[in-house]
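Technical appendix A lists one of the benchmark inputs used to test multi-chain prediction within the project. The record comprises two sequence entries:
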Amino acid sequence: MPPKVYVTGCGMISAIGNTFAEMEESVLTGKSGIGDITLLETGYRNQLVAGEIKHTDEELAEMAGISFGPGLTRTTLLGIIAAKEALHQSRLKDPATLAFISGTTVGGMVATEKYYNDFLTNDTKNEFIESHDCGDSTERIAEFLGIKGYLSTINTACSSSANAIMLATRLIKSGRIERAVAGGTDALSKFTLNGFNTLMIVDQNLCKPFDENRNGLNLGEGAGFLVLESEKVIGEKEILCEITGYGNANDAHHQTALSPDGRGAFLSMKAALDKGGLEPGQIDYINAHGTATQNNDLSEGKAIERLFQSRIPYVSSTKSMTGHLLGAAGAIEAGISIIAMKNGCIPPNLNFSAKMKELSYSPVIEMIREISIRHIMSNSFGFGGNNTTLIFSKA
Amino acid sequence: MKVFINGIGNISPQKTWDNNLFLDEVIESDSNCLRCTEPGDYEKLIDPKLLRRMSRIIRMSYSSARICLDDAGIAAPDAIITGSGMGCLEDTEKFLLSIYENDEKFLPPTPFIQSTHNTIGAQIALMLQCTNYNVTYSQRGISFENAMTDALLLLNEPTYRHILVGGFDEMTDNQMILYNRLNYYKKVPINNLGLLNSGTPGTIAGEGNTFFILSSEKNERSYAALSGITTFNNHVDADSVSENITNFLTSHNLTFSEIDLFVAGYNGDANSDKIYYEISKRHFSASPVAAFKHLCGEYHTASAFALWMAANILKKDHIPEAVRFNPAPARSIKNILIYNHYRNKNHSLMLLSSCQ
């Protein structure tokens, strides 16, 4: 029997909180962090909203406890803050042997987009040429935290960090490693804001997941990391949850759009249930991918309906609070799932008013409290039809 | 656990797309950047309607994957796993420049859509209508090794029998400017065939699209058995690399003398080649040593080219003259060790053995 994999630490930063505790308070009060863009340098400042963390890079460096210097990107800084908190919470003394697996899709682009003309014409920003690639933030975070074990970065767009958590779980179950820090980090960037806006899937107002009149997503930024440990080495310590199920499938429909019947979403959810030895009826809550684009919510919504049929669990998309964190979305939503399980509550899906005509059900719109939650399913879907589902269970 | 390389596809700076050939002829260049030599008959591999819309890297990587699947006789793999240091660089640059040039207005969406690292894996899945596991790794000089490690993990499970694993990276004119700024490359033009003896700092750029079918079972098409892979990621000296290699071989019950060919990532940079020279001297002074980056250039997933070369050497039982790095007499080859490092930060070891 492969060992059970437990979560013993969780660190988070997003527009609704700089720490796990702050995030918890925001989630429990149904707070949204989406608003005007005031820090990112973009022509869309007065036109689009986003879940922006209201701290400059210098302030983030101070929070991270690192001296701000060349080559250090916002993606790295956010990652250090979350990963450091996760390690602290797990009370692991010696990080050297840990594996570190991070998901990111923006990576160093957040600096490249500012300095690209310099890169091409002069030597003033050379340090940022080297921090452009996705592996940079991962290497820097690991180095700062003294982690020297297996190192990996996943970039499958918006499912990156969910895949990072899945890989860490599989590595532990295989016996290859015993402990890992896994999650992801992504900063708000002009590149992604323009990219999604060009695809006409960004709502100028607050996003409305699973609403009949939904009009696109709001971008967000942040990082989330979990400490995962094998039951063989965990000893006596507080366990946040167990990772019981995980699955990845490809929609194989279109480079950016999901199939209308949610083929890949159905397969990844089904794979996660099978891996966990769970029946659909055992899932208490689905923290949906729920980006609030026409395409995602229909595809995901139909897939949920097909899998769960007449017994649809509670469903909500917390992207209405945090915005869409892209590569970090799966990790931050893993953290929010842990908050839900710990507090016996279902976080609400904000800004909802009209049920989708294609679906038989609506998301949870008011906080549900004091219920027993045993299993939470979390979906993360990315460009290229990359669908990943994780299941977090009460330990 | 042993897995088998049962199919290969490689579009690289050399004429490697035809699996019947094996470096019989070598392409020379003094541009300090080895670009891929593309097959002239893409229409045999890709629907011409799709071909016109494809970016260069998608065209090359998809074709390489197609050649690989055909080579292995596999219609659809049980998983598609890719690794790339820089992803789809040309599309990324295109979209970035369009933001600058058009002041964030009326941008063409296609380069953004194709800019994500998992575009290649996704396009392959789309064309094969393959809904199976599909993940992309991007960890600089071990991006390909991370993909391989995942494939080995999957092959431990009975549901996975044949996995498509690939490494890809492309070089662009702009990226040459950027990396030249960082002094990655030679300051004066150098012929790639003379690269490894240059004695000066810097290397030359390269690119490649190299795919493999890794299978849990051996068959008549098998090239080689892959027995192990490991990575380490710190600035290290030769002592530390030596210790890592010793531990790696010990864990596979092998001694240095049982390695019949040492493939090392020499890239002609007098500084970073020191580790390879030291390891060769210490452990492989009487064994044949081979090099490959004078043929493909330096890039994040160059180790995939090394694996392609080593697998072919085992299957064909022949070391091409062009890759021999020392005069040690060739012997019958059973085990090959590949050691590669990227900027003395990302190190990897891969162990292959003959299927016989």
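Chain A touches chain B through 61 residues (CB under 8 Å). The CA atoms of residues 290 and 317 of chain A lie 5 Å apart. Comparable benchmark entries are summarised in Table A2.
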